[in-house]
Amino acid sequence: VYLQSTISVAEGQAFARQLELQPDVVSGIEYISPAAALVEFTERSGFGDVLQTLDRNPLPAVVVIEPVSRQAAQLQLLIARLEAEPAVESVSFDLVWLERLFAILSLAERFVIALGGFLSLGVLLVIGNTIRLAIENRRAEIEVVKLVGGTDSFVRRPFLYLGFWYGLGGALSAWVLVGLSLIFLGTPVEMLLASYQGDFVVAGLGFGESLLLLAIGGGLGILGATLAVGRHLSRIEPS
After folding, report:
1. Cα–Cα distance for residue pair 75/69, rounded to 1 Å
2. How many domains does the chain have?
3. Do 38 and 61 form a contact (C-beta atoms < 8 A)?
4. How far apart are CA 19 and CA 8, in angstroms?
5. Do 115 and 76 fall into the same domain?
6. What is the Cα–Cα distance from 162 to 133, expressed in whole angstroms?
7. Residue 88 pairs with which residues in a beta bridge?
8. For this UniProt entry, which segments traverse the membrane (predicted)?
9. Does the pLDDT value for residue 196 go beyond 60?
10. Helices 152-195 and 95-137, packing angle to 10 deg
């Protein structure tokens, strides 16, 4: 948001604070004074010698806004509101590029969800098959336990624990792979976004997301083990 050239630094900062009081509309605010804008422009453009010959600073104050909404209609309303402000000279906003970016992000999000679903199904099948092999390898022990009066719940419990640890180990491996992928791809992706003047940072899984991933992995392990044990344990009876 480019402010009027007649707006003082104090008035510009007050305008930025006014926008900051609307957390439902704006998630981030940065005020750039004319002097700071001149320094930044000089460093990026390489026209420092030319700018030093000017009698006054031609650059206005700028307020960089991070909107909360990703909807094009709401962003257009926000732009219209800002342009109607007396302190605003103009609003620079590449709505077309942002719509394309959000469309790509939405597609990527759905792809990740679908991929996660297929991988979860694969985890169930792999753990179920692993537990089935474990049951077959311990068939003689299971028959002896049932012969002396061991219940199905007693026999089932070790395999459920085994499935949980398999699932937890798989989730931990996935967490490590995600971290390594972000290290490998983070810088190129940030450079690509920066070339489109996008101020985005590629971030990994936070503490809450990491715990959720581990919980889902453990849960899938228990579910796969439960299905496998319920199917194969009933077929083993002492002879």
Report:
1. 7
2. 2
3. no
4. 17
5. no
6. 12
7. 3
8. 111-131, 159-185, 205-229
9. no
10. 160
H-helix or E-strand containing 155? helix 152-195
User: Among candidates 169, 168, 170, 166, which has minimal Cα distance to 133?
Assistant: 166
Q: What is the dihedral of CA 138, 139, 141, 146, to 10 degrees?
A: 140
Residues 59, 138, single domain; the answer is no
Q: How confident is the model at residue 52 (pLDDT cuts 50, 70, 90)?
A: low
Question: Reduced to 3 states, what is the DSSP secondary structure of residue 4?
Answer: coil
More confident residue, 30 or 48: 30
Contacts of 116 (CB under 8 A, 6+ apart): none
What element of type H or E holds 51? helix 48-52
Last residue of a domain, one of 93, 125, 152: 93
Distant-in-sequence, close-in-space partners of 232: CB < 8 Å, separation ≥ 6: 132, 135, 136
Compute the Cα dihedral for 112, 103, 179, 67 and give only its sign. Answer: negative
Q: What is the dihedral of CA 20, 26, 28, 32, to 10 degrees?
A: -70
pLDDT digits (tens, 9 = 90+) for 138-176: 888 888 887 887 777 888 888 899 999 998 988 898 888
Tokens of 234: 């009933």
Regarding whether 28 and 48 lie in a shared domain, the answer is yes
| Best CA proximity match to 237, nearest among 129, 150, 108, 179 | 150
**Residues spanned by the domain of 128:** 100-235
